[in-house]
Amino acid sequence: MNASAIPLANNTPLCYSVNSPPFRYRPTIASAYFSSIFGTLGLISNLIAFIVLLKSFQQTHSRSRSFFLIFLGGLVVTDFMGLLVTSSIVISFHVTHFNWRHLDPNCYFCNFMGMSMVFYGLCPLMLGAAMAVERFFGINLPFARSTSMPKRRAVYMVLMVWLIAGGIALLPLTGIGSYHMQMPGSWCFFNISSGGSDLAFSLVFSLVGLMCIAVSFFLNTVSVVTLIRVCCGQDGSQRRRDYEIEMMLQLILIMVIATICWCPLLINILMSVVTADPVKDEIVLFHIRMATCNQIFDPWIYIMCKVSRLRRVKNLYCTNSAIRKSPPDKKPLAMATLCHLEPDPGSVGIHPVPKISS
Predict the structure, then answer these.
(1) SS3 at position 187
(2) What is the DSSP letter of 350?
(3) Is the pLDDT of residue 192 over 60?
(4) pTM score, whole prediction
(5) What are the residues facing 190 on neighbouring strands?
(6) How far apart are CA 166 and CA 283, in angstroms?
């Protein structure tokens, strides 16, 4: 992938200077089916998640929760569009086996896909960090954020994240880095190299991604510790923290999935450009596929982690604890007391005491 060290011969476009189609590799029917199922599942999942978030946004009356749902909505839209753009190109290649050199002699199409890969790759990481910052101030410094802050402020923040990610994706078109055809010929990405401007862009991409993950980890850890202290303190029984727990649980899962899916690629890019080791195409392809899984797993976090489901788990846990710790004749009463349930007067163990006639 060291394009900077390879001179362009016969006016070869820059994006084909390292890997020039046609390749010996021939995509199989299985790979086409896999890409189709993978992309379709991700699109359907994000569409369902968007509907769930839209209903939650219409029902919520909490300003902090509305802010958080706007960020989640931006993340869902980003994941959906990322899968739609990249998967449609990859699936088309696997189905038609088109030759990039004939279809895109001037590298416009390749540059577009490379920009899409960078933009839709950085956006989820940057939005995760932005949500961590918002939750940090909402939980740890609630008075620092004005209660009259309009919801459009969250929309502006999402747009700002998109603008920053878009600016980074456009850097190769200004001469900082370059987009190239990648093996097996179905996608384009920036050139991972330790020389020239490719080194600068590789460092920007990997360091921005790793910094977003580090910021999310630190701020989420502080927010979780604060939330545990509030919930377990003396006023824990007086405050309703279900929505706070829901938002932090979703944010923690988003961070964990992003870390698992993206860290291998980001660390591999950083180590390759720092040590100047040759980049193996099959390893990069595997890491890219891992990173793409983030767009499929994310929507199920919003679908499954809802307050109603968390309350069911909480009540189930309380019920099981009451059954284990209470005497046999006091189990229904303990269940009602510990889980805040209304006891059934007709249940065993809490019958009214009969009056003794004088």
Answers:
(1) strand
(2) -
(3) yes
(4) 0.79
(5) 179
(6) 26
